[in-house]
Amino acid sequence: MSKLGLRLALLVLAAGAGLAAAAPPEGLFPGGAAAYVVQVDGRTVWSREADRALAPASLTKIMTALVFLESGMALDGVVTVSASAGRATGSRLGLKAGEKMRAGDVLAATLLRSANDACLALAEHVAGDKARFARRMNRRARELGLAKTHFTNPCGHDEPKHRSSARDLAALATAAMADARFADLVARVEQPVATLAGRRFGLVNGNEIVGRYPGAIGIKTGFTPGAGKCLVAAARRDGVSVLLVLLNAPDRWWDSVAALDAAFAEAKAAH
Fold it and tell me: What is the pTM of this model?
């Protein structure tokens, strides 16, 4: 377990033991967040700067996955890694130009490892190149009513016009989680994948909440220098669903645990 994972696990244990009281709304994110939304069963209970257009980092990949899943292309279809995908920067799986993988494995690498080489390969598989894929992303964003969202790339790289808002990302995450294939993937702690030639990779979910926070079921993390640390987290307990979006939140792991606890406490008090 990473040091960060160990610290998070200890925090979760303390909260579960009743040592961390549910934070009041005004104190949800003492570490700071440029924007956030907290929803209980689809209803926004707390928010800050929810409609502010900000860089979403790899939370972008939620839309990339949704566009792929809604394209009708098969999970067992073959994705061939292009030279451009093989040169992708940032978080990577380590794919090489010409390698072939099942689309489902490429999708898993995109969501769990947040691998930009896999993400770009998936986008090119669907639309031919990243510009055409971005147009499909924006068309889907309009259909979902995401008024503050505009994508210029499929993976979340910092670009001047690549923006979304906490409210839009909550709506996007809700749409994506309605697809059982997406929901199944983002709830996994680990997932092995391989190229068709047999080169194997062990994916570990980059979302530290999954597998550690009781009831956690996803969804996605992100980080770039321009976006800061971002998170969309979802958890379900006793029939109550909580969705949290954090943008540019330096202490996203600590703060997300406190916010999720507070949201479940709010739901319990309301009943």
Answer: 0.91
